[in-house]
Amino acid sequence: MKRERIHSAGPSITQLEIDTVTDAATTGFYSNYRDYIEKFETEFAEYVGVKYAIATTSATTAMHLMVLAAGLGPGDEVIVPDLSWIATASVHVFSGATPVFVDIEPDTWTMSPASLEAAITPKTKAVMPVDLYGHAVDYDAIVPICRKHGLMIISDSAPAVGTLLNGKSTATYADMAAYSFQGAKMMISGEGGMFVTNNEELFRKADQLAEDGRKPGTFWIEKIGYHYRMSNLTASLGYAQLQRVEELVAMKRQLFDWYHDRLGDIPGIFMFKEKPNCRANCSYPSIVLEGDFKVDRDGLRDEMRNRNIDTRPIFPYMSQFPMFETQDNPVARRIAETGINLPTAAYIDEQDVDDICDVVKDILGV
Ligand SMILES: Cc1ncc(COP(=O)(O)O)c(C=O)c1O
């Protein structure tokens, strides 16, 4: 292995990012203290194809704003896929609503439309699908179900900057959606997120709640709010990355193809491929061990770590956590217990992928 250690994730930072952040640190105060925030929000909204965007401290806080703007609270149920990062469930608990966990599709790991429909009760008020690991949710099936039952769609698109369904950003299928720019994502701002919507009323509510509930442009507090707005310095890094976003998507898609060419056809190893109407951003190339190998998933990860290759397990399915009632979602459980995210750090080149895949095959005994 020519590198000391292969990291599981990490961004692509060029002179553009360094110059832009330097500019923000040099000039981005006094009357310019919001310049990068405004440019980032405006251009990100254009990129996604929505009218409104609010840059936030994280996707979690953007998702909390969605829940608050939707008016969800005690007695309300929100349907979420069982396989995701905990924010997909915790933002509902913050407001007293109840997350209801449903199963995922075996080929895309996104919410199963059939499981969603089966879980709807009179208490269901909203649905939070997740473009997990950058594959588009099946909105062609999910939107009609939600419209039929009068349910709001508030999407967790945290890992899905650049993901398209039928040529449109997945966020455009939702009433509100959130993206993440946390440091392990494809496009980063360190920590950070973006709330997006086409609905002016929801935007105004979320915008006020993101800034302490103040009357816009004043120090008068009209309601108790939160302190969720991104800083100008953080926005400058996100803004610089946005100028390169299509290059970043292309890099991840290339990396995925290299992995797929080497591992995708091995019996017992499953890698998801994007559906024909979807452009996945491929930000987390992953494998699931379906066959009988020399080691199991955790054994593979341990031995890869011994050989200086970091990986991540697929997220644990959420309903098993102690604060929830465990649900029987067999696909989510199987993927969570047998899958790993392969290294996706931006510096990884084809030679690294060759080396990583040789190590995987050696440890598995194939
Ligand atoms: C599916 C999903 N939802 C939400 C989040 C939370 O994003 P953030 O760390 O920006 O709050 C993540 C981050 O990993 C995620 O993967």
Structural summary, described in words:
It contains 12 helices and 14 strands. The chain is an alpha/beta fold and 366 residues long. The protein folds into 2 domains: 229 residues, Type I PLP-dependent aspartate aminotransferase-like (Major domain) (Aspartate Aminotransferase, domain 2, 3-Layer(aba) Sandwich), CATH 3.40.640.10; 120 residues, Aspartate Aminotransferase, domain 1, CATH 3.90.1150.10. Helix 1 runs antiparallel to helix 8, helix 3 packs across helix 4 and helix 3 packs across helix 7. Bound molecules: pyridoxal-5'-phosphate. Pyridoxal-5'-phosphate binds next to helix 3 and helix 4.
How would you briefly describe this protein structure?
The chain has 366 residues and is an alpha/beta fold.
Strand and helix layout:
Elements: H1 15-27, H2 35-48, E1 52-56, H3 59-69, E2 77-81, H4 87-94, E3 98-102, H5 113-119, E4 124-127, H6 139-148, E5 152-156, E6 164-165, E7 168-169, E8 176-180, E9 193-197, H7 200-210, H8 232-243, H9 245-263, E10 269-270, E11 278-279, E12 286-289, H10 297-306, E13 312-313, H11 330-338, E14 339-341, H12 350-364
Parallel strand pairs: 2-3, 2-4, 4-5, 5-8
Antiparallel strand pairs: 1-9, 6-7, 6-11, 8-9, 10-12, 12-14, 13-14
